[in-house]
Write a structure and sequence with these properties.
The complex is a heterodimer of chains A (209) and B (129). Chain A is mainly α and 209 residues long. Chain A contains 10 helices and no strands. Chain A folds into 2 domains: 132 residues, RNA polymerase sigma factor, region 2, helix turn helix motif (Rna Polymerase Sigma Factor, Chain: A, Orthogonal Bundle); 72 residues, Winged helix-like DNA-binding domain superfamily/Winged helix DNA-binding domain (Arc Repressor Mutant, subunit A, Orthogonal Bundle). In chain A, α8 crosses α9. The N and C termini of chain B lie far apart (143 Å). The N terminus of chain B is likely disordered. Classes of the chains: A mainly alpha (209), B mainly alpha (129). Chains A and B meet through α3, α4, α6, α7 and α9 of A and α1 and α2 of B.
């Protein structure tokens, strides 16, 4: 169905806006929300251009969410694609007045969690030699980063997800709770324990380096 | 060699957390190349279009209207059946309550019987017309 909206123009403006870290409310935030709502409604009416615009708008943030949960870049790519497919299938059930991003990122988090569960089942059936390289660092020159990568593998999946979503991606405890399906207090507590654990694991770095 | 300074115990402080966060941000940085995102979007939309063309998607699209239509049909059929049954009951009830034609029939029977007998007698008396 042909829609009477300027999908391309809208998307360019929205992508520019969401690229900026969400630490302040942009003056045109309200306009951006209206545009996004129009895109969602158009996509619900069958416009693939509108859905593509939504993909363009949210894929970076979606990648960041799933990347915090899965272990590798390749898994993050798979989870993002699965997440968008789930979102496309469920689009009819989404209420356009709700924030689309929050709804989408929860779907993304679920897709990533599913993938992690599947990987665990698969890895349990395979030999340990197939354990993936967790964090790509082509040069391996940075000793600190290597150690940090190792330290992160010592955290639980949820602790790692929470610390990355909070400290790296800037999500609030409440948003993280919604995404991961846990109470806000649990997200807060996970973050505290993750930081404490990282400090404990990395406490000897100063003397070693 | 590194700017990371972690203290013993759990009281690392905000500076340490910020440094770790900075390192984490670099480790988890999304691909910066714009062409990567264009390609990812293309892949996603390709999969979405495959999904959209599938017959199951078409079925899924029609599932809700079909369910609503089926429910409406069911309600209409139920109402029609209820009304038909109610009408039957009313007719049966009225038939029971309505005065029967029996007494009237009794009153005319002698006359009818008389006419029939006369006809029979005429036929028997004139076998060859």
């Amino acid at each position: 169905m042909k829609q009477d909206i300027d999908v391309t123009g809208m998307t360019t403006a929205l992508v520019r806006e969401t690229s900026v870290r969400e630490t302040y409310v942009a003056p045109s935030a309200e306009a951006a929300r209206r545009d996004e709502r129009a895109l969602v409604i158009a996509a619900q009416r069958g416009s693939s251009e509108a859905f593509a615009a939504l993909v363009r708008l949210h894929q970076r943030r979606a990648y960041a969410v799933v990347r915090a949960i899965v272990l590798t870049h390749e898994d993050a790519e798979d989870a993002v694609q699965e997440g968008f497919l789930h979102a496309f299938r469920a689009l009819d059930r989404f209420l356009p007045d709700q924030p689309f991003g929050a709804w989408l990122y929860r779907i993304m988090a679920n897709a990533a969690l599913d993938l992690v569960r599947r990987r665990k089942v698969r890895d349990a059936d395979e030999l340990p030699e197939t354990v993936p390289v967790l964090f790509r660092d082509p040069g391996e020159a940075d000793e600190l980063r290597r150690r940090l990568g190792d330290a992160l593998t010592k955290l639980t999946d949820r602790q790692r997800s929470v610390i990355v979503l909070h400290d790296v991606e800037g999500f609030t405890h409440g948003e993280i709770g919604v995404m991961l399906g846990i109470p806000e207090g649990t997200a807060r507590s996970d973050l505290h324990h993750a930081r404490k654990e990282l400090r404990r694991i990395l406490k000897d770095i100063r003397s070693d380096l | 060699m590194t700017e990371l300074r972690l203290e013993n115990g759990s009281g690392g402080g905000d500076d340490d957390d910020r440094r770790v966060a900075r390192e984490l941000r670099e480790m988890y940085a999304a691909p910066a190349d714009e062409s990567y995102w264009t390609e990812l979007e293309t892949r996603i939309m390709h999969r979405v279009s495959e999904l959209d063309l599938g017959w199951w998607a078409e079925l899924d699209r029609w599932a809700r209207p079909a369910l609503i239509a089926a429910a409406a049909l069911l309600i209409a059929a139920s109402v029609a059946m209820f009304r038909a049954r109610q009408t039957e009951t009313e007719i049966a009830y009225e038939n029971i309550l309505a005065p029967g034609p029996a007494p009237q029939e009794t009153a005319v029977r002698p006359t009818l019987e008389g006419d029939r007998d006369a006809t029979l007698r005429y036929v028997l008396a004139h076998p060859n017309p």
